[in-house]
Amino acid sequence: MPKMRTSFQGLIRLLAQSLYPEPDVFIRELLQNAHDSIQLRRVHEPELAGEIRIEVDEANRTLRFTDNGSGMDRRDIEEFLSVIGRTGTGHHAQELAARAVAVATIGQFGIGLLSAFVVAERIEVLTRKSGAMQTWRWVNHGGEDYQLEALPATAQPPGTQVVVTLAPDRTDFLDGRFIRQVVRRHADFLPFPILLNGFGPINAVNAPWHEPGWSDPVVREQSLTTFLSQRYADPPLLVIPIDLQQPRAWGGFFIPARYTPGHSAGGGVDLFQARMAIRSNDTELLPEWAGFVRGAVDCPDLQPTAARDNVLRDATWSALRTELGERIVAGLLELANRDRPRFLQLCDWQHEAIKGMAVRHTKFGAAVLKHLPFATHQGQLTLPDILARQPVTEQGQQSLYFFTHEADANQFNALCQARGVLAINAGRPFDETLLRRYAGQYAATLALKPLDRLDDPAWYEKLTPDEQSAYQRLERAMDRALAEREVTVRTQVRRFQPATLSAVVLAGQRVTAFDAMERTLEKPFTLDGLAELAGEVRDRLRQHPLTLFLNAEHPLVQRLGALVELDHPRYRSILTGLYYSALLNAQHRLTPAVARRFHADLQELLREHLDLCLLPELQPFLKSR
Question: Which single residue of 257, 267, 513, 535 could bond 291 by disulfide (Cβ 3.0 to 4.6 Å)?
Fold first, then answer.
């Protein structure tokens, strides 16, 4: 029976490229192999000062990686280096673990060496096992054949050299600056110095959590602040140390001292496993509400994937994710109690993230709700601060006023200032949900009052029967004038303060929905079905009129109420203009259709005003005729 043929050389390169899609990862793998080799030798020689060297030879297109680790003998080479899929250092670590000897190795020597064939045309290994009287030289060109020869012991001190001859199109890896960047990204915390062409170390060797002062909270926060600001080029507003027992993990998170609008602020974790970088800017390990957090975590209990560019999503990973979320919550609560101004600043800059977190995370929300700031015309205040400035009824009850459309701030802030109360601008995400949750906790003494839907006689005083009768013509004339402009309102004349406010529009949420439908219908490429649906929704919204309160204290309203022929065309622009001015004061976004009608009415009003201005100049001419 015919057999399939295999191009072994092609298979080797295919495996290397499939496991390691990023070509620079071979530097990480060879450094990890060197680290593991030193760790294995230190089991028997604890005083050994490990060292890793990288040397660049541009003339021969080679990179040489040298370590003073355990080295290999012929058995090791044939069992691990020359058999694809055998892991080498991991196997030795398992043997030592069976003898109750712990050693921090995560490398897979044979698989790791394979990564070099992504960029190499030839790999040479010179190695001598510690205490052995013979050096071994192994050479492979990416095929199934390899060379293996014995050399005198003097040819190589104990340890291993890996010489990578780069392909002609991969000479960019000979750039010293590029090598430094790769080392800092992947191997910055390997516990042994890494020298480049005899200079260095080019790695930090230790992070703050590896230093002796880590147990001191003050030293820990200072060192973490310096480390995180240098690594991420952002000054931290809040630093959160990570020191977990189960699963074992160290590191630090921070929230940057800068405004980052939107739900995501570019959060992520640089994930390490036993000091080796596994994954940069990982966003899955953080809870979904923690997109404003950055930092680094080293968890030796995690299990890397074969390519060591990620970790397995196992029980350890899930437990770490949960614990990190709890630590973020604890750090924010501690800041809220310890440094209120900084917490308020954080909430202002990361509004959607922090308040979204309070909505989704029940424990955090319950603990921090009283610390969260809300916008008022007196600035950002917490709910207890707001209630402390509100009047209390004889029955011991208070009202918590708010409006849900940010654009309503002008009209409602003016009303609140005139009445000596505060209202919350709850137009930002999650605000209303949190307000209702807070009111639910104090339902016996606290009542929520939505101003954009509040028809309260205490705020908008009803007129006497005689006054109401006198203003009925104005109310009806206003409704008819706006109906001609396809605006459905229910006009009422009331008395309220301040007297400088001529009109107030209620039902802000309805305005928002109606305007959204109008904007949809204005788009030239709206799908037929969507346009039909938007039109239907708009028509239904028209059946629920807005409430327009005219202020009987305002001079313009008083003068309009005294006119007899309010339905005369010359007053139509004034009536509609009064409505449009209320919309503008409420900062409601005008739809294209409403803006066109407003523009036309304003032009007509300006023309009429000009005629009145010119009338005295025309009097002599008219008399002469």
Answer: 267
How far, in Å, CA of 485 to CA of 578, rounded?
A: 13
For 373, the token pair is 């700031």
**Looking at domain 8-196, what is its CATH homologous superfamily?**
Histidine kinase-like ATPase, C-terminal domain (3.30.565.10)
Report how far residue 28's alpha carbon sits from residue 182's, in angstroms, rounded to the nearest whole number: 8
- Separation CA 147–CA 55 (nearest Å): 23
Give the residue from 200, 248, 231, 186 showing the smallest Cα distance to 35.
186
pTM metric for this prediction? 0.69
Listed residue (101, 112, 94) closest to 35, CA to CA = 112
* Distance separating alpha carbons of residues 517 and 512, to the nearest angstrom: 9
Q: How far apart are CA 469 and CA 464, in angstroms?
A: 9
| 402 touches 451 (CB < 8 A) | yes
DSSP state of 588: P
Domain 208-344 of CATH type 3.60.21.10: no
Q: Report the candidate in 99, 104, 94 with the shortest Cα–Cα distance to residue 39.
A: 104
Q: Which two tokens stand for residue 189?
A: 């915390």
The answer to whether residues 516 and 526 touch, using CB atoms and an 8 Å cutoff, is no
Query: How many whole angstroms separate alpha carbon 219 and alpha carbon 214?
Result: 7
**Domain boundaries in the chain?**
8-196, 208-344, 372-453, 465-507+544-613
Mean pLDDT, residues 58-62: 95
Euclidean distance between CA atoms 162 and 124, whole angstroms:
6
Q: Which whole-number Å values give the CA distances from 397 to 370, 385, 412, in the listed order?
A: 18, 16, 22
Name the residue among 140, 141, 79, 139 with its Cα closest to residue 109.
79
Classify domain 465-507+544-613 by CATH number: 1.20.120.790
Structure-token pair, residue 544: 């629920």
Q: Which numeric CATH code is attached to 372-453?
A: 3.40.50.11260
Q: Kindly state the average pLDDT of the residues 296-317.
A: 85
Beta bridge partners of 122: 165
CB atoms within 10 A of CB 621: 8
CB distance 82 to 145 below 8 Å: no
How would residue 107 be classed by pLDDT, with cut points 50, 70 and 90?
A: very low
- Rounded to whole angstroms, how far apart are CA atoms 562 and 473? 9
Place of tokens 């930002």: 428
